[in-house]
Design brief:
It is found in: Cell membrane. With 153 residues, the protein is of the alpha+beta class. It has 2 domains: 33 residues; 111 residues, Band 7 domain (Tetrahydropterin Synthase, Chain A, 2-Layer Sandwich), CATH 3.30.479. The chain has 4 helices and 4 strands; from the N terminus they run αβββαααβ. Strands 1, 2, 3 and 4 form a 4-stranded antiparallel sheet that branches. Helix 2 packs across helix 4. It is elongated, with a radius of gyration of 28 Å. 14% of the residues are buried.
Length: 153
């Protein structure tokens, strides 16, 4: 009788273990790899804000950032930082070609009018134009342009 009780308990433990393995261990576990990031890459905000004359006689002040591709190296010092880095002007960050990027942005914004920065459609057009010029004129691997803190006067 004791042998049968031990046998029944052993069978119950094995069965419970099998059910646990089948149901719990086989359940899909959410992983970070399955969740798509809303912003892929890194966001690089140009430190110094822009103050530009618009084509219609008004002024715009804004902060500009770039969403950089994950393989972008424009903010990584050459040779791992083992070389002498030139002194950058005040307000410039770690981006090696930031002066050219700023020139592209300033040139594009100078041809804009106030509604280009005050409407969604206008901002999309400006962002697309800036992104195209950055890709054409620099080695920066920008994926998107971010316009933040926009003020038109």
């Amino acid at each position: 009788m004791l042998n049968r009780l031990i046998l029944v308990i052993a069978i119950a433990v094995v069965a419970a273990s099998g059910v646990y393995t089948y149901v719990v261990d086989k359940a899909p576990v959410p992983t970070a790899a399955k969740v798509k990031a809303k912003v892929e890459g890194s966001v690089y905000m140009l430190e110094k804000e822009f103050l530009v004359n618009l084509a219609d006689g008004r002024f715009a002040r804004l902060q500009v950032g770039l969403v950089l591709a994950s393989d972008d190296t424009s903010t990584v010092p050459a040779n791992g930082g083992n070389t002498f880095a030139p002194t950058r002007p005040s307000g410039y960050g770690a981006m090696l070609q930031e002066g050219v990027v700023r020139d592209v942005i300033t040139t594009t914004l100078t041809g804009a009018v106030d509604t280009d920065l005050m409407t969604t459609k206008g901002r999309r057009r400006i962002k697309a134009a800036v992104l195209k010029e950055i890709k054409d004129r620099t080695d920066v691997k920008a994926e998107r342009v971010v316009l933040a803190d926009v003020v038109v006067q």
